[in-house]
Amino acid sequence: MIAPFPVSWKTRLNDEFNKPYFKELMSFLDYEYSRYTCYPDKMAIYEAFNHCSFEETKVVIIGQDPYHGPNQANGLCFSVQDGVKHPPSLVNIYKELETDCNKPYPVSGNLDGWAKQGVLLLNATLTVRANDAGSHQKKGWEIFTDAVIKTLSREKDGLVFLLWGGFAKKKVKLIDSSKHHILESGHPSPLSANRGYWFGNGHFSKTNHILAGLGNKTIRW
């Protein structure tokens, strides 16, 4: 049994839970978690939603898969547990944050502090088998998380979507650009960042500039 889905989101996504694809996804997860080591922990699968209610969401960052190494994934995209070595993509996120916002490099790789301020850290696929990247893709999670993005786009106004890399940029078709703000750049992974597609995007300061212009509280990155 996985953790219950947070009420603030469930009321808006209730139709999804009754669809055949979602029931098949839950059966698949029961099988996977009973036979293999999978990440994140079953009780942390919905942490992105637990930490950031629908009402409080003002920024959306879209990742692809959870980390698949031991003790890394904590249910928030790009985030790891306290005390865990920062993965390369997170290192580059923090390096950009250093230069963009003149902040010292953070000690912890846990991004729950961002989430609690209204940053939805959403992976397109919410689970993965240990040491097997992409193993839970195309099992139904993408249908569900696309529904999350479409619901946010439809029911809220003035959100800031940060689309990092080719995979995230494909989600632009789900977002109403006439009433939301979309910032795109390369992915923070070393392959993209070292080619000049990540560093210097200024997304953290740009996000706060947009939020301030809308009369919202800025994010303490």
TrEMBL record:
Query: Where is it chiefly localized?
Result: cytoplasm
The record ties this protein, via Pfam families, to: UDG
SUPFAM superfamilies hit by this protein = Uracil-DNA glycosylase-like (SSF52141)
Catalytic residues of the enzyme: D65 (proton acceptor)
Where does the record place it?
A: Cytoplasm
Q: EC number(s) in its UniProt entry?
A: 3.2.2.27
GO: which molecular function terms? uracil DNA N-glycosylase activity
Domain Uracil-DNA glycosylase-like as annotated: residue spans: 50-211
**Reactions it catalyzes:** Hydrolyzes single-stranded DNA or mismatched double-stranded DNA and polynucleotides, releasing free uracil
Q: Which UniProt keywords apply?
A: Cytoplasm, DNA damage, DNA repair, Glycosidase, Hydrolase
Q: Which NCBIfam families match?
A: PRK05254.1-1, PRK05254.1-2, PRK05254.1-4, PRK05254.1-5, ung
Q: What does this protein do?
A: Excises uracil residues from the DNA which can arise as a result of misincorporation of dUMP residues by DNA polymerase or due to deamination of cytosine.
Q: What is this protein called?
A: Uracil-DNA glycosylase
